[in-house]
Design brief:
The structure is a homodimer of 337-residue chains. Chain A contains 11 helices and 13 strands. Chain A is an alpha+beta fold and 337 residues long. In chain A, helix 1 packs across helix 2, helix 1 crosses helix 11 and helix 6 crosses helix 7. Chain A is globular.
Chain lengths: 337, 337
Amino acid sequence: MLRVSYDELYTALYHAMLSLGFASERAAQCARLFAETTRDGVYTHGLNRFPRFAASIANGSVNVSAEPSKTAGMGAIERWDGHRGVGNLNAQASMQRAIDLAKQYGIGGVALGNTNHWMRGGSYGLQAADQGMFAMCWTNTLANMPAWGAKTPTLGNNPLIIAIPRAGGHVILDMAASQFSYGTLAAYSKRGQPLPVDGGFDSAGNLTKDAAAIEASQRALPIGYWKGSGLSLVLDMLAAMLSGGLATHQIPRDPTRESGISQIFLAIDPSSVADQQELTQIAEGILNTLREATPVDAGKPVRYPGEQMLHIREENLRLGVPVDPEIWKQVNDLRQS
Amino acid sequence: MLRVSYDELYTALYHAMLSLGFASERAAQCARLFAETTRDGVYTHGLNRFPRFAASIANGSVNVSAEPSKTAGMGAIERWDGHRGVGNLNAQASMQRAIDLAKQYGIGGVALGNTNHWMRGGSYGLQAADQGMFAMCWTNTLANMPAWGAKTPTLGNNPLIIAIPRAGGHVILDMAASQFSYGTLAAYSKRGQPLPVDGGFDSAGNLTKDAAAIEASQRALPIGYWKGSGLSLVLDMLAAMLSGGLATHQIPRDPTRESGISQIFLAIDPSSVADQQELTQIAEGILNTLREATPVDAGKPVRYPGEQMLHIREENLRLGVPVDPEIWKQVNDLRQS
């Protein structure tokens, strides 16, 4: 495995972004989001996503210069148009606006339409938590999952992020509505390994752990069967209706042309209703109870969402961030071009 | 099956509430919430819950006279103390306050601590949607589900409700974080039927469809395995931290003494950012696509969350609402006592 230092990774991505036409400050922000995602172990949505990201810019789906603008709003809620700009920069700006509204009103919301793939959704939860805010955000996606009771994919997997600020490490849920992403299915099918739990239906309509069979049927399983199906639908409705942007069924199904998507960003300032000491006491009480649960495997203590990420981050900062040699070369070649 | 008219059901419940010590107007509101829940087919949380509700009043867990009061707040977010009052009345008042805040600020939030079981969470989603509001709300519960990787239950199943107003029938998700409630498990185990999908672990630690085995192990399955486990945890953290109320691990595990729980109510006024025509157009586009998906079973078209409820409601209003004869007698006896 090739490992490079975080600074090397960031710098290479920064220069690659400049080559793709970004202005300097935006190149730095976008490179930082990609590099942090890889540093934190979310390999599917950091450096490894760069080739698809570059292709989306090349085919005109992503406009590297567009900045979001406010189109409607009242009090603590606003609608913004992403103008098909860079997904992670648009999302970061929208969460920042929700945070600023929460500072003013205790809670704030931004509905962002006409934007692009935000890469790792957890980035915006961490952004809010770093500023002491509770946050929820979600995005719709192209159709990649059948509704419960259907064979044909009409729902997105619509990741939902919920973040809770905490001095000892933020608690952050980053959860798609499908049991496994197609990226994960591809990794299992390449290795010929069965999934740890059922991940979808085979072409005969039976639940299966065979990733290749699910890739063939395109029938990924919603989390909790009918429940995740319903969750995906309502998240799409909220995002599209409040932003005035596209719903899942209107988003092009070619991944490099998945564009014009809809997102929601909510932030809550806990200092509106609680003091820090109380917040810490309640959070630590909950997490201590979780740690004290009897583990299924004595060697594997129960973890909170986001805990494992901190271990991976520490390791990757210490040993270097693992990179795919081919993609690493591609990013560096772009830098020199 | 015994069926009674909606009016009979409501009237019997109203008089029963009076016998339990409710003031007249509060008896009417509480009876209406119980009766509507049964009318809508959520049988586990309406009339059938009445004996447990009466027991909670008798043992002092629920104070029929207590009303919620505001203890903190800033702008569009407030913290309320439920004073261990009647759970459904406290929840209704809190959602109404969130709606009123949303009318003023576009979005509003209420964190309610020290309250009691809200019965059907969907009631408060419907309440908001009836007033043209988008809404999300959730509650924590006593510990009834092990975290992913644990054998001992430290998490609640923490139902999450998301509602979208719609002239043709609100879209309403009412989703617990466990795959099946213990009420549902009991019904399957009584009938000796296997669950439709895995619902938990048996005492040997294997996933199983055997409801009785899950009742014995007390190892109910989170939706989406590790995902529902994380979702339950973060919903508990948000509810307890923002309300200053109890977290799941602090709630008494005796169902008739489950008291002092924490809830969150969020409302968004879509008229802050969109006009009605646009909202309708986007919603109908999404639901039409869902309807056009190829069903697994040609006789079973795909439904949106809340659609089946409308059919059951119509049938129950037409034929009478099904009631359990024993509980029906108990409610009527209380009326005459």
